[in-house]
Structures are given as structure tokens and as C-alpha cells.
Write a structure and sequence with these properties.
about 280 residues, alpha/beta, Rossmann fold, Conserved Hypothetical Protein Ylqf, Chain: A, domain 2, six-stranded mixed beta sheet, about 40% helix, binds guanosine-5'-diphosphate
């Protein structure tokens, strides 16, 4: 497998910005991808947050396997974390995040001194979507592009709540090859330097482990052999062929990853909590 790029400069900047912002916040909203909660978690936030109250949002739970999401909730609750499965696109349920955060903060008159929240998470987990749902309007967030720097943004959600977004890039742990594979397979992060075929082979292996019946139902292939062979057969069945009738590996990879990301294989979780 190719090695993954790492951005120490950006991490350094993010660390500085988080260290500046955290003392101003009453609580943190850490947004994760429910399909891969651990892989979409950045340990830097966890380290810097210290004892500051935190609501862990398992977002995109509409795409994740509900049983596995529940297992994550149980797992983290046992570690004293406040965990909330969420669909950030739904404005009604998004408000629950504010209630959960407020419940963690010592009571006071929030009209006099508004609740200050910090929202953080790796790119693409749904921070902007959640923010728009919470604000009830379109509020732009930090562009999660590596080269962009700007001041932290402060948004007044309502009379009692102010929210900071994290301006830096809270990059996922791309140095962990398995996490990088999960992030790439789910489509969360495209810039992992893993080629499409490698990602699809890894995804096929995981899907065979967790959801073999879904693969059989969709592609009509048992897939007991190596994942490469399975993908090859998917390509053949779906007519992903190049001149001469040879399977086009990249197209075959795209079929599987496209089906996985668009939910055509059903609600899938790529990562389970430790037993
Ligand atoms: P950010 O980079 O963390 O701010 O992520 P965005 O808010 O830009 O969301 C990334 C993508 O995920 C967008 O296409 C959103 O529409 C989608 N998205 C966000 N939340 C959800 C959710 O709860 N369910 C689903 N299915 N998609 C979501």
C-alpha cells in the first residue's frame, strides 16, 4: 500500500487555534461520521479538550447500520462520553445537540451570558450542514481546504447560544493505513493517496466480513474468494470492459464504491466498537 500524506504544518496551526479557542468555549461539539466513528475522530481534539464537556455527534446515522451505531453509543457512554446519533440535514433533530450540550454545562442565565460552543471535526462529516440546521439559515463554515487560513468564525445561533467553528483543518489520522482506507471507502476523504482499486479491494474485504449477504443480493456473486477476484467478477457482470473484453479495474472499483457511498448496499457501518 502507498504511504499516506501527512500535513504537520497544518496540524501545528490547528493545534494553536484550538488551544486559543477551547478556553472560550463552555462545551465542544465533536462531529464524527457514524459509519466510521473511530477513524473519523481526530485524537488532537481529544488531547487538547481535556475535561471540557463534549457532545460526540455520530452524524450521517441515516447511512450507518443502526445496530452498530447503537453499539458505539453504548461503548462510548461506558467511557462517560455524551454520544448522539444524528442526521444533520434534519433541522428538527439537530436542535437536540444544543440541548445535550447545555445539559453538560453548569446552569446559568444563558440570556445574560450565552452558551459558547465549539464545533469541530474532520472535513466532510457534516459540520456546515449541522450548523445550517442549528441556525435555521445558511451559514458558511471554514473551507476545509488545506491552504486556507482565516480567523475563527463566531456565529450567534440564537439569543442564548454562540458557536465557534474551528478554522484550521482538523485532519484525520491518515497515517493509520486502515483508518485511511475507511475514510477513502466511505468517500469521506478523497485525498488519501490510495488508488481506487486498492480502496475498492479493501472495501470489498470489509463488506465480505460484515455484510456478505448484501453483496450476494446486489451482485449475485458469492465472493468467498479473494476480494480482488470478487471485484473482477463485479466488473465482468456490470460490463466494465475495455477493448478486447478485459475487465476495466478502475470502473469495477467505481461500481462497488459508488454503490457503497450512495447507500445502494443499504445502511452500512465500516467500523465496529472494540468487543
Ligand atoms: P463539513 O465539511 O464537515 O462541513 O461537511 P458538510 O456539511 O459540507 O457535509 C458534507 C456532505 O455530507 C454534504 O454533501 C452533506 O449534504 C452531507 N451530509 C451532511 N450531514 C448528513 C447526514 O446526516 N446524512 C447524510 N446522508 N448526508 C449528510
Amino acid at each position: 500500500m502507498q504511504s499516506i500524506q501527512w500535513f504537520p504544518g497544518h496540524m501545528h496551526r490547528t493545534r494553536r487555534q484550538l488551544a486559543e479557542l477551547l478556553p472560550k468555549a463552555d462545551a465542544v461539539i465533536e462531529v464524527l461520521d457514524a459509519r466510521l466513528p473511530q477513524a473519523s475522530r481526530n485524537p488532537l481534539l481529544h488531547q487538547l479538550r481535556g475535561p471540557k464537556p463534549c457532545v460526540v455527534v455520530l452524524n450521517k446515522s441515516d447511512l450507518a447500520d443502526p445496530e452498530v451505531t447503537q453499539a458505539w453509543v453504548t461503548h462510548w457512554k461506558a467511557h462517560d462520553l455524551e454520544v448522539l446519533p444524528l442526521v444533520a440535514t434534519d433541522a428538527k433533530v439537530s436542535r437536540r445537540v444544543l440541548q445535550a450540550a447545555r445539559a453538560l454545562v453548569p446552569p446559568r442565565n444563558f440570556r445574560l451570558r450565552p452558551l459558547v460552543l465549539l464545533i469541530a471535526g474532520i472535513p466532510n462529516v457534516g459540520k456546515s450542514t449541522l450548523l445550517n440546521s442549528l441556525a435555521g439559515r445558511k451559514v458558511s463554515l471554514a473551507a476545509d481546504k488545506a491552504a486556507i487560513t482565516r480567523a475563527p468564525k463566531r456565529i450567534h445561533l440564537d439569543e442564548e447560544t454562540t458557536l465557534y467553528d474551528t478554522p484550521g483543518v482538523l485532519w484525520p489520522k491518515l497515517e493509520d493505513q486502515h483508518d485511511a482506507l475507511l475514510l477513502a471507502a466511505s468517500g469521506a476523504i478523497r485525498e488519501t493517496a490510495l488508488d481506487l482499486w486498492t480502496v475498492a479491494v479493501g472495501a470489498a474485504a470489509l463488506l465480505h466480513q460484515y455484510y456478505p449477504e448484501r453483496l450476494r443480493a446486489r451482485y449475485g456473486i458469492a465472493g468467498d474468494g479473494p476480494p480482488e477476484e470478487f471485484l473482477w467478477n463485479v466488473g465482468k457482470r456490470r460490463g466494465c470492459l475495455r477493448a478486447g473484453g478485459v475487465v476495466d479495474a478502475e470502473k469495477a472499483a467505481q461500481v462497488l464504491l459508488g454503490d457503497l457511498r450512495s447507500g445502494k448496499l443499504g445502511r452500512i457501518s465500516l467500523q465496529k466498537p472494540p468487543a
